[in-house]
Every structure is written in C-alpha cells, then in structure tokens.
Design brief:
By secondary structure, this protein is an alpha/beta fold. The protein is built from 6 helices and 10 strands, in the order βαββαββααββαββαβ. The chain starts with a strand and ends with a strand.
Length: 220
C-alpha cells in the first residue's frame, strides 16, 4: 500500500509552521509515506507583512513552500500542490486539492470570498473543496452542498478536533471523508492521510482517487 499525506505545512509560508522543508520530507519519508500534499495557509497570517504586495507577488511567496518541499524531496517523495484557505470573518479552514499556480493567480485573493464563491471557483475547475477539522473549537458547520467533503480525522496533538463528531457527521450526511496529520513542527505527530494500492504521483491522480473513494483512511 502507498501512503499519501493530505494536510501538511512548512516553515516560511505558514507562519504557524516551524519545520523547514528538509525536515518535513525526512519525517514523512521515515514514516513510510510516498506522497505529500503541501497545504500551506492562504490567510491573514501568511500575508500579515505582505499585504502591500500584488496578488502575483503574494502567490510567488506562497509557492516557495511547495518549491522548497519539491527540492528537498528529490525523487524520494512525490510533492503535490494544495492549499488551506481561510475566509475573512469566518474561523473555518478549507483544504483545496488539485491546485495549480495558474489557478491561484486566475482566481485572485480568495480571502474575501464567501464559501459559495470559493466553492464555485473550485468546482468549475474540477478541484475538490474539503472543510478541515470542522469540529475543532470555534469552527462552524457549513452547508454540506457547498463542500466536496470534510476532514474526519486530524491527528494534530495540540488541538482537539473532535474527530469522532466529524466522523459521525460525515457518515450521517454521506460526505466524502479525508484524513490528515496537519503537520507543522519538527517533532509533530504523523498519523493521518490515505492509503492506496497504487502510488499517487500527480494532482490528477489525487483527484481521481478522492472522487472514487478507492482509498483507506489512515487514523493513527
């Protein structure tokens, strides 16, 4: 079986992250993962000292996280581009899978979007929108028709994501389910993601697998 991490952050872009790309890659390689999705934050924290920059310059900064991971990984781990978006005025975080630099540039700054607007942009492009840790303290449940699924298991040890409630909600509503380690720190716990029978080597394969449901959630 092949392991894919769906929720990870690296130092330099996500200001809450303290693990440099080399450490991130070494930790996941040692844990037996074959693919890593870089889901650095697009939120106020990422750009708190950069709001005067153009959106193109903001995205150039955002891409340094993914590029650093790719360089550190070499041929050892497949690194895919994703993101975790926070919309102004709402505490929720949304993971987007299938992301490209071109899509981010064309969309413009999503932080001022409503969830409906973000959902429309994501779905029109054939990507997937997943609410991260929806039962973590302060988060709000959103209309499931605007989402492509929810993260039912988040293994970050410094937050109580009430994973059992997320699992119950997804089962009740028939929602697509994902799992992630929400990795931030050099000694961060690795215990989420998915397992598949074939390796996931690109975003197109990731989207196909997540849509098909042909995977097993890692919950460790």
């Amino acid at each position: 079986m092949y392991r894919t991490e769906l929720h990870s952050h690296s130092m330099g872009v996500s200001i809450c992250a303290h693990a440099v790309p080399e450490v991130v890659i070494n930790r996941f390689k040692a844990a037996g993962y074959h693919t890593l999705v870089s889901t650095n934050h697009i939120n106020g924290g990422t750009y708190k000292d950069k709001e005067e920059l153009s959106w193109e310059e903001k995205i150039a900064h955002f891409m340094t996280g993914y590029e650093g991971l790719k360089k550190a990984a070499g041929k050892d781990i497949h690194v895919l581009l994703g993101c975790e978006i926070n919309l102004r005025g709402c505490p929720n975080d949304y993971l987007v899978y299938g992301v490209t630099k071109e899509w981010l540039l064309e969309m413009g700054d999503p932080r001022g979007f409503s969830l409906q607007e973000l959902s429309q942009h994501v779905r029109e492009s054939g990507l997937l929108l997943i609410q991260a840790h929806p039962f973590r303290y302060g988060s709000h449940l959103m209309k499931e028709e605007l989402l492509d699924g929810i993260e039912v298991y988040n293994s970050h040890k410094n937050h109580d994501s009430h994973n059992y409630l997320a699992q119950l909600w997804a089962d009740t509503k028939g929602l697509r389910q994902t799992s992630g380690s929400d990795f931030h720190d050099p000694e961060g716990y690795i215990g989420g993601g998915i397992e598949t029978e074939a390796p996931i080597t690109c975003n197109e394969e990731l989207i196909r697998v997540l849509r098909s449901g042909e995977y097993r959630l890692i919950k460790e």
